[in-house]
Amino acid sequence: KAGVTQTPRYLIKTRGQQVTLSCSPISGHRSVSWYQQTPGQGLQFLFEYFSETQRNKGNFPGRFSGRQFSNSRSEMNVSTLELGDSALYLCASTLGGGRDRYTEAFFGQGTRLTVV
Amino acid sequence: LAKTTQPISMDSYEGQEVNITCSHNNIATNDYITWYQQFPSQGPRFIIQGYKTKVTNEVASLFIPADRKSSTLSLPRVSLSDTAVYYCLVGDAAMNRDDKIIFGKGTRLHILP
User: Fold this and answer.
1) Three-state SS annotation for B59-83
2) Are the beta carbons of A107 and A92 closer than 8 angstroms?
3) What is the pLDDT of residues B56-78, one digit of tens each?
4) Which of A87, A114, B21, B93 is 20 to 30 A from A76, alpha carbon to alpha carbon?
């Protein structure tokens, strides 16, 4: 089956602009999580969506937002971009819905965002 | 989520067995132990998961002592392509739990020729 697809793979934006990233999870997976990865901070959890509802949120400012559609595809948006938002943004999909084991997460290739 | 502690970095040579230990003193009864591998500019990839004793798959083995306060990921006969960051995670496996997965700093494994 197809893996997790993130688009676009690379993006260059200017400070102050906004950006929308997209993630298509594995078919049948209902949970999508977003992460920001930078060399200094490592992998940081942004938020998790399940059945179109944000279920968990990390410690990021309100400029970072997301949503999930009825087909489980998810988008994240960053408004008023800052230089420090330059990072690899990863999304992960899991089955979701409370299983009887800690679920395996499948990650996409990520979107490399550069803010200039 | 239980806090985990693992070495920041390790070096080894091709053909050697590599063992990466993770400490999780506050592991809860329902927690599973999961390891992920990440190559540069790629998303993490699931390696192995276990609850107690030993788990083995085609990639690695996971050893968990009886008290479950630590675990060891064992990579047999490593090659240069095993150079990556390895993350140890401990999480709740109870029914209806959410899927929030938090990564620590990981162990940067460098395989030398």
Assistant:
1) CCEEEECCCCCEEEEEECCCCHHHC
2) yes
3) 999 999 999 999 999 999 999 99
4) B93
The residue type at A64? F
Nearest to B105 among A42, A94, A103 (CB): A42
CA B34 to each of CA A63, A111, B10, B93: distance values in angstroms, whole numbers, following the listed order: 31, 25, 19, 11
- Cβ of B101 and A4 within 8 Å? no
Distance CA A48, CA A93 (A): 9
User: How many C-beta atoms lie closer than 10 Å to residue B74's C-beta?
Assistant: 16
Query: How do the pLDDT tens digits run along chain A, 116 residues long?
Result: 679 999 999 999 999 999 999 999 999 888 899 999 998 888 899 999 988 999 888 999 999 999 999 999 999 999 999 999 999 999 999 887 655 445 688 999 999 999 99
* A89 in Cβ contact with A110 (< 8 Å): yes
Give contacts of B38 with chain A, Cβ < 8 Å: 43
